[in-house]
Design a protein that fits this description.
Helix 2 crosses helix 13. Helix content is 30%, strand content 16%. By secondary structure, it is α/β, with parallel strands linked by helices. It binds N-carbamoyl-L-aspartate.
């Protein structure tokens, strides 16, 4: 990966996120004094998926810093339609600019791009994987409202399965100690790989709660029944038991404010079967904001909206989404300036107290490849390294380093072992996974010279013949 790229929100340490937000605030307050600081610099904006806010605000940000922008906003106008690979396209564009911003429909495309770029790459959304710069402006907006995020309640509503903004935001909120409450559309809860990551990397339990107040968000499309919503308790000191749910009440009447972060159903990422059977979906309109439970709720949305956020609340003083979109400019100005080295990070090295520790890696593509058909490493396999990180908790799994989806191998072998075992027999205690072998099926294990345990025993006995 090109050093200094921003592919997932975990590429930034907590102090770096704070640096981005602090400088953004200065830039918002004194915009004119930053005019021209990037006058020598050129940014390549490569958008292979539709975009209004992200592309527009990156362009505006660069130009407000005095830099210039080249690029493409239409995949059909590039040589990719002639069969050129993403790797080659990126190689070329990176030789024309000092910084690259890429949005692409494949999960892991930004990571693949960073492996072929000569300049730092910023992920502006890669399939349903991540959208770290949206998270930065979401955090900026939340910080303006709350000051600190520690202990603050954020209700994430809508398409938590395919919404990339939500995935990046959850990981960041966990680091800042917020309490997250999930109110997903039916069948659109957080995917397993995100839940497992939260559990393994952040060691936080996810608890189902019943919450009558939040149930109102489904009221227009669900009849009478109570919706179960999930909550993550953020800090070890926070109550962990179901009996303490009263204290998890949103304290709406007591005047504690909280954020309602709505998202659009990501129809373009659904299979035709899923989109043919749309289920209940949380919506926010003026009748919701009139309820006393929501009197202190302020509303965010990454936009674009469809019908989950009614225009009837646009003029409501609790609506923050247009301001949130506007915050995209100072936040991206700040990020560009820091990534170009125009201002120093407050701590010298990236990655200090940054993302969670990683497990051992596994990169034997002939034995295991990523299961995700929309992963950049699957689609452009000739240019990808097919590496995985091995995790033992909460279950043994290989996490693709491009799309971060997990593959569960069917068999494993012990270090220097001669036989393969079903993955269900994998040691329960923590082991150094680096020397274990992992196999998709018996065929791949046998191709590695491994044998079925029973056959070895039989052969051992047969050896005396
Ligand atoms: C989001 C995106 O592209 O993921 N939009 C944005 O960048 N503001 C959200 C969405 O498309 O629903």
């Amino acid at each position: 990966m090109y050093r200094g790229s921003l592919i997932t929100i975990e590429d930034l340490s907590t102090s770096q996120i704070e640096d981005v937000l602090d400088l953004a605030q200065e830039m918002e307050q004194n915009r004119d004094s930053f005019r021209g600081v990037a006058s020598h610099a050129l940014m390549a904006n490569l958008f292979f998926e539709p975009s209004t806010r992200t592309r527009g605000s990156f362009e505006s940000a660069m130009k407000r810093l005095g830099g210039d922008v080249v690029g493409t906003s239409d995949a059909t106008s590039t040589s990719m339609t002639k069969g050129e690979s993403l790797a080659d396209t990126v190689r070329i564009w990176s030789s024309y600019a000092d910084l690259m911003v890429i949005r692409h429909p494949w999960e892991g495309a930004a990571r693949l791009a960073s492996e072929y770029s000569d300049v730092p790459v910023i992920n502006a959304g890669d399939g349903s994987h991540e959208h770290p710069t949206q998270t930065l402006l979401d955090l900026y907006t939340l910080r303006k409202e709350f000051g600190t995020l520690q202990g603050k309640k954020i209700v994430l509503c809508g398409d938590l399965k395919n919404g990339r903004t939500v995935h990046s935001l959850v990981y960041a909120l966990l680091r800042f100690g917020a309490v997250i409450i999930f109110v997903p559309g039916e069948g659109l809860g957080l995917p397993d790989h995100v839940l497992h990551k939260i559990e393994a990397d952040y060691q936080l339990p996810i608890q189902p709660i019943r919450h009558r107040g939040l149930e109102a968000l489904y009221s227009r499309n669900r009849s009478g029944e109570e919706e179960e919503v999930d909550v993550i308790y953020m800090t070890p000191s926070y109550p962990h038991t179901l009996t303490l749910f009263d204290s998890m009440d949103l304290h709406m009447e007591k005047g504690e404010s909280f954020a309602l972060y709505a998202t659009r159903r990501q129809g373009e990422r659904e299979s035709s079967v899923e989109s043919d059977r749309p289920g209940a979906y949380p919506r926010i309109d003026s009748s919701i904001l009139r309820m006393s439970d929501f009197s202190k709720a302020f509303v965010l949305h990454p936009l674009p909206r469809v019908d989950e956020l009614s225009p009837s609340i646009d003029a409501d003083p609790r609506s923050r989404y247009f301001q949130q979109a506007r915050n995209g400019v100072p936040v991206r100005m700040s990020l560009i300036a820091l990534m170009l080295g125009l201002y120093p990070w407050s701590k010298a090295s990236r990655g200090d107290e940054g993302g969670p520790p990683r497990g051992a890696s596994w990169d034997e593509p002939e034995v295991i490849v990523c299961d995700n058909p929309n992963c950049a490493a699957t689609i452009e396999s000739q240019n990808a390294s097919h590496s995985f990180t091995i995790y033992q908790r909460p279950l043994i799994r290989l996490v693709c380093s491009y799309c971060e989806r997990e593959t569960i191998p069917s068999y494993f072998s012990y270090p220097f072992g001669e036989v393969y075992h079903p993955i269900t027999d994998f040691p329960k205690e923590r082991v150094d996974t680096g020397r274990f072998g992992f196999y998709r099926d018996t065929g791949t294990a046998q191709a590695r010279g491994l044998r079925h345990p029973r056959r070895v025993t039989q052969e051992g006995q047969d050896a005396g013949e």
